[in-house]
Write a structure and sequence with these properties.
Elements: H1 29-43, E1 67-72, E2 77-81, E3 87-88, H2 93-105, H3 107-114, H4 127-131, H5 142-151, H6 157-172, H7 180-187, H8 191-202, H9 210-221, E4 224-225, H10 227-238, H11 253-266, H12 272-278, E5 283-285, E6 290-295, E7 299-304, H13 315-327
Antiparallel strand pairs: 1-2, 1-7, 3-4, 5-6, 6-7
The chain binds 6-diazenyl-5-OXO-L-norleucine.
């Protein structure tokens, strides 16, 4: 008898037989808004962390900027603070571009090309590429993310970037555009990412010209969003791939679940285990200070606050997310004992 492994498809078609789900609803709207407001006031004075400066344009961000947005899986939003301030999406783009690639080539093939395990190394590590035979470990660190971007549909860099821009806009429910300042600043200082792309190319694990792939990736990271956009993008992943504000199906539900799995594994880089242990929900951070968190079936939560911890994750963002996860019940692993059957 043939050996079966967990990588094998189930013996039915997932697209026509969707899995049963295990999630509930957010609490009452008034409670959610109250807890969001509480979290904002609780952590507003926190001055820990440092604004990223390795991309010169990011260093100009005020450390006082602070916004929180929750978009429920049915499209209701709960917000406070700097919710209209645009900032570059940076690494928060990575799971959404991975989603677009899974949608285009299938999530099994995307896993073979990119991997779905955590590296245990910082987001821009070359050692992680050298030490792992598969070279790319997951789509959420820079190596795997540049490889992901290299797989985006399109035969030219322009076509690939337009596919990314259009796809991320559909996740957000509005047209996104690029910050020319951030792009120029990062393009002038990202030799390390070009190095990663060339290293991957030398191993046959990049699928487009290395400099062009890095350039599209840099443009992708320079797309401007607000914290509301990020929450709407998260809510799309919380809602099986349909943006709850626009009603647009952006990706298949079967892709959506895989994207969330990778976010849980690697969304907070080498601190992903700590994040899951403390907070218990898939998340993704970026160096401009955004974090998106997805509570499947319930909604997307986004925070924006530029000061970062040493791993590159927003300090206030992590505190707020932990508070909200506890107070509005987002932790995937939380359960309560039921009375024993008599
Ligand atoms: O490639 C880079 O270094 C940036 N464009 C994105 C890095 C990032 O956001 C890491 N996040 N915490």
């Amino acid at each position: 008898m043939a050996r079966l492994s967990m990588h094998d498809r189930l013996p039915y078609d997932e697209a026509t037989t969707p899995p049963r789900v295990s999630t509930g609803d957010l609490p009452d709207p008034a409670d959610v808004q109250r807890v969001v407001t509480e979290a904002f006031h609780l952590y507003q004075a926190n001055a820990d962390g440092v604004v990223a400066d390795y991309i010169p344009a990011l260093a100009a961000a005020s450390p006082d900027l602070f916004g929180i947005s929750v978009v429920g899986a049915r499209g209701r939003s709960f917000e406070i603070g700097d919710v209209d301030t645009p900032f570059s999406i940076q690494s928060v783009s990575k799971p959404f571009v991975f989603a677009l690639v899974c949608e285009a080539e299938g999530y099994d093939s995307a896993r073979q090309h990119l991997g779905v395990n955590s590296t245990g190394f910082p987001f821009n590590s070359l050692m992680a590429v050298e030490l792992n035979d598969a070279r790319t470990m997951n789509p959420l660190v820079n190596a795997g993310a540049i490889a992901t971007t290299s797989l985006v549909p399109g035969t030219t860099a322009e076509e690939k970037f337009e596919h990314v821009r259009d796809g991320l806009s559909r996740f957000a429910g509005r047209e996104l555009s690029m910050s020319e300042d951030v792009y120029a600043s990062e393009a002038g200082s990202n030799m390390r990412n070009h190095g990663i792309a060339h290293l991957l190319n030398s191993y046959g694990r990049l699928y487009f010209d290395p400099d062009a792939a890095t350039d599209v990736y840099t443009r992708q990271c320079s797309l401007e969003v607000t914290v509301h956009d990020l929450a709407a993008m998260g809510a799309t992943l919380a809602n099986g791939g349909v943006n709850p504000e626009s009603g647009d199906r952006v990706i298949a539900a079967s892709v959506c679940r895989r994207v969330l799995a990778v976010m849980a594994t690697a969304g907070l880089y080498e601190l992903s285990g700590d994040w899951l242990y403390e907070i218990g929900v898939p998340g993704k951070s970026g160096v401009s200070g955004g974090i998106v968190t997805v509570a499947p079936g319930k909604g997307g939560l986004a925070t924006f606050s530029p000061p970062l911890d040493p791993a590159g994750n927003s300090v206030r963002g992590q505190l707020v997310t932990k508070y909200l996860a506890e107070r509005i019940g987002l932790n995937l692993f939380a359960s309560e004992a039921r009375p024993t059957l008599s």
